[in-house]
Amino acid sequence: MFRFVSRAFALVLACFAVAHAARAHEYKIGDLVINHPWSRATPGGAKVAGGFMTITNSGTSADRLVSASLEIARTVEIHEMAMNGNVMTMRALEKGLEIKPGETVTLKPGSFHVMFIDIARPLKEDEKIKGELVFEKAGRIAVEFKVENRAGTGEHGAGHGSHHTPPKAP
Amino acid sequence: MTSLRFIRALAWASVALLIAGTGYLVFAPASETGSGGAQVGGPFRLMAQDGRIVESEGLKGKPFALFFGFTHCPDICPTTMMEITTDMQALGDAARDFRVYFVTVDPARDTAALLKEYTASFDPRIIGLVPQDEAELARIARAYRAIYRKVETPSGYTMDHTASVYLMDGKGAFFGTLDGRETPQTRQAKLKRLLARG
Closest by alpha carbon to A29, among A57, A71, A62, A67? Predict the structure, then answer.
């Protein structure tokens, strides 16, 4: 009887956890928390898109995002974009992206991103697209990328990104 | 003795070469521009996304903007085109005849048809230009002092490129640039000044 109650209780807790994770658009695997994977609606004819998120490592050893996939992309690479003066440069991180213990790495426009290559169709605002992230130690986890509008910043997290407007300059 | 004379002659020859070289580096760019400043821009003739030819000669009297980009660009190109779309809409009637030319630095993949589909997602005053070969692309990039470079990636390639939007006045002279790090207010103020100058 006790066992039944405790199992039922655990199940209820698990449901809450799942519901919470879904609302916050947050994923946990091992010592890693992945928050708000998102992308932007793409222009017509575009064959690539950037995927963004934050990854926090609460463990004591470094981990590494080594690959990713998206159900509608031929392949996904891990890139770093940078501005070198007025020149936009892009490099594939062939050893993946390191997440040091106790640190949060932000994948965002103009910086680190996963690059969806040869997407089968344009990404549309408000849709969610299934993908997977693979970490060297923590392993693989299924995620959903939420598509924001073309000016999206991902700043408001789940559900509000598409309504975000940039702050007015003083 | 003769070898010493030879070495001395060689040394003087090197000095002369050095002076000539320095002189060239210092004076050649200035004589090229005529006005002392680094010249940005110059005549061009390129095929547009609809198959028509856009010639800088035909743009006299009409200020325009020019951007080097490519459609396999996940971030800066669509963002820049979104920003300039917003800017032109904010300027209203003043920007009615303004044009933004999107010159692809990846003509191997960016066909006229693809650029047409791509630019259709933004303001209709944005027009794709497609260099027909590497030489045409190199020529316009050199004129605008823009950089583009093919970079291999595990599954193919991407392009590094100058990300500034060049603003050219009605005489075809360089007016300034727009930069994504500027506020919309700053960018729109620049565009207003450009349009006022004509």
Answer: A57
Contact A142, A73 (CB under 8 A): no
Residue with tokens 């080097």: B68
> Does A101 score more than 80 pLDDT?
yes
- Among residues A130, A127, A157, the alpha carbon closest in space to that of A142 is found at A130
Q: State if pTM tops 0.90.
A: no
Mean pLDDT across the stretch A30-48?
A: 97
Distances (CA, A) of A135 to A65, A81, A99: 4, 21, 10
Q: How far apart are CA B155 and CA A95, in angstroms?
A: 15
Question: Would you say the C-alpha torsion A93, A96, A102, A105 has a positive or negative sign?
Answer: positive
Tell me the DSSP string of A30-94: TTEEEEEEEEEPPPTT--EEEEEEEEEE-SSS-EEEEEEEETTEEEEEEEEEEEETTEEEEEE-T
In this structure, what DSSP letter does residue B59 have? G
In terms of CA atoms, which chain B residue is nearest residue A94? B154
Tell me which chain A residues have a C-beta less than 8 angstroms from the C-beta of B160.
84, 87-90
